Amino acid sequence: MVHVAVATRAFRRYSTYRAATLAGIFTNSVFGVIYSFAYLALWSANPTAGGYDAQDAVTYVWLGQALLMTIALWGGGATDDLAERIRTGDVAIDLYRPVGIVGWYLASDLGRAAYHLLTRGVGPTLIGFLVFHISLPSSPLTALAFAVSLVLAVVVSFAIRFLVASSAFWLLDQSGVKVMSGAFAIFFSGMMLPLVLFPGWLGTLARALPWASYVQVPADVWLGKHTGVDLLAALGFQVLWAVVLLVACQGVLRLATRKVVVQGG
């Protein structure tokens, strides 16, 4: 199947950057240690902040570091390739392919995410477990639910990044939109601070936005904060945003192909 081949090629492509991967694991681990001690200090002052205990908080830190590259929080991956192809005009070749652009680039991004999960995901998680004794999923069902949540997180992230890259059809360069999108992602995903700590209306808003699918929802699934019907609701939240955003990607692509301004080609 063509999409499997695309994903496999992307996995192999990223596996060639071994030195960068090792450096990334080291960097994520260093920040994991720093954030862990900061969170331990915070939770020593308020042991039940956000409904987490200290071990939950430290586990959340290491999950965030593990998911950072898997979900491409700051952008990058297949969608950056798309933005560059729009800028150069090579996207015209993509439009003539017998497979849809969205599906093609999604498959590529899933291949990238799989590589980062197995390297920059597993590496920091093991270090967090050995050094800080972070929590593990309490049951096989919880582990399976986390795996599903993680795939949905990558899909939601991809869709947002695809929309950002598609802005190049009109702006010719996605850079400004990408920076703004990255700022929203860092704040509203829970990477900077768990969304459960956000007060009042801000917390309600943050937990309703698609970026909550990146870190907060998968982390809460891992920690067992969602069970039964609540677990289905959490996964349903991610599915809803994935569907809405992928439909938006198709809509934007249709608009873009009607009137395409190509720079340099």
From TrEMBL:
Domain of life: Bacteria
Transmembrane feature ranges: 21-45, 57-77, 117-136, 142-172, 184-202, 231-253
Pfam families noted in UniProt: ABC2_membrane_6
This protein's UniProt keywords: Membrane, Transmembrane, Transmembrane helix
UniProt-listed InterPro entries: ABC-2_transporter-like
PANTHER family from the UniProt entry: INTEGRAL MEMBRANE PROTEIN, SLR1174 PROTEIN-RELATED
Protein's name according to its UniProt entry: ABC-2 family transporter protein
Record organism: Nocardioides pinisoli
